[in-house]
Amino acid sequence: MKRTRNWGFGAAAILICLFTGISFAAQEDFPKKPITVIVNLAPGGSRDVSARGVANTMSKYLGVPMVIMNMPGAGGAQGIEKVYTSAPDGYTIGVGGKTDILQQVIEKQRFDYKKFTFIGKIQHSPTFFFVKADSPFRSVKDFKTFGKPVRLSTHSITSPPTLAAMILSEKEGFPLVIIGGYKGGAAALLGLVRGEVEFSGPTLVSSMPYVRAGQIRPLVTIDKKRCPEFKDTPTPGEVGYPELDVLSSDFWFIAPPGVPKERVKILDEALQKTLNEPEFLKWAKGADLDPSPLSSQETTKLVHGYVDFFQKYKSYVEKHIDK
Questions:
Q1: Rounded CA separation 201/199 (Å)
Q2: CA distances (Å), 28 to each of 89, 119, 256, in order?
Q3: Residues in CB range of 10: below 8 A, 6 or more apart
Q4: pTM of the entire predicted model
Q5: Cβ atoms of residues 252 and 293 within 8 Å
Q6: Which residues are registered as beta bridge partners of 217?
Q7: Residue 16: half-sphere exposure toward Cβ, Cα within 13 Å
Q8: pLDDT digits (tens, 9 = 90+) for 90-140
Q9: β 92-97/249-255 pair status
Q10: SS3 sequence, 54-101?
Q11: DSSP labels for 6-44?
């Protein structure tokens, strides 16, 4: 007897998928285990605080825990490399920033930043030049008349505020000494509070506890506009250096190259829901964070532009490395 196959159900399923926009790939069970979020700096800084806050809410939309793993080392390059070389399955992501891009611009790394999978942007934050409350400096232009080298504490020679200090040093003509080796922005700021340096370049998150305690004050807000918390503190553009405005701090979620598009979409959608959730926004305000959501596609375009843009600053950093 001749066998016949019943293709009706299969054909119907295919048609349903086509007309509803559902793909078979989208039906995979992802995620079904915890997702590791690598933070390439020590706990306590703005990158770490942002990652923990976002992960705490985002896990609700994904239905699995998001586990923070701090991996400082080599100025942050170690953690970024770990993300890059992890399996491209969506279960390992990391927090990227401009510092990581500058590292690749200055020195060959084991990652190609443009090849990362970008999940989405999570935060924008101004950076600052802070001095101790009793410092004689009232403006960044006072560095020139200090009479001796001005010391800056930093966790990485390629951090945006460190680069801003290098550019300012060259344009104003004052000697700059960069004190590195700190395990994160929070640790570098503590170096200022202890009197180990004359100034530091933290973000708002790291600095506010010391500001409220009356221990430090800002000289300049490194951003395109003034910070509401420091309405009297000028931007670089207002003191004659508009090219420094871009050296603010932005963070985004990255994943290894080659993560399947459907998994990226799932992570991206969960991230966007998180960054627009009223309860999360309330928490972010209390933590001095400024969520800045961009989609995967928008973040990819933004970061690729940063990679090209920072090439022009390579010579500034190389001069200080040679020292």
A1: 7
A2: 12, 19, 19
A3: none
A4: 0.80
A5: no
A6: 131
A7: 7
A8: 999 999 999 899 888 888 888 999 999 999 999 998 999 999 999 999 999
A9: antiparallel
A10: HHHHHHHHHCCCEEEEECCCHHHHHHHHHHHCCCCCCCEEEEEEHHHH
A11: --HHHHHHHHHHHHHT--TGGGS----S-EEEEESS-TT
Could you report how far apart the first and last alpha carbons of the chain are, in Å? 88
Question: 316 and 159 in contact (C-beta within 8 Å)?
Answer: no
Question: Residue 322: pLDDT band by 50, 70, 90 thresholds?
Answer: low
- Sort strands 199-200 and 150-153 into parallel, antiparallel or unpaired: parallel
309 token code pair: 């843009």
Measured CA distances, 133 to 148, 215, 310 (Å): 20, 5, 33
d(CA 270, CA 208): 29
Q: How far apart are CA 236 and CA 250, in angstroms?
A: 17
Tokens for 189, please give them. Answer: 């700021």
The H or E element spanning position 131 is strand 127-132
Question: In this predicted model, what pLDDT tens digit does every residue of 18-73 receive, in sequence order?
Answer: 444 444 344 568 999 999 999 998 888 889 999 999 999 999 999 999 999 999 88
Q: What is the mean pLDDT of residues 77-85?
A: 96
What the block records as the tokens of 82 is: 């770990």
Whole-number Å distance between alpha carbons of 148 and 129? 18
Show the tokens assigned to 151: 């010391």
- CA–CA separation, 17 vs 186, rounded Å? 50
Say whether the peptide bond before residue 31 is cis (omega within 30 degrees of 0): yes
Cβ atoms 42, 48 nearer than 8 A: yes
- Structure tokens of 163? 């680069």
| Domains of the chain: residue spans and CATH | 27-124+248-314 (3.40.190.150), 127-238 (3.40.190.10)
How many residues make up the chain in this entry?
Answer: 323
The structure tokens listed for 30 are 């992802």
Q: What is the mean pLDDT of residues 74-101?
A: 94
Confidence of residue 191 (pLDDT cuts 50, 70, 90): very high
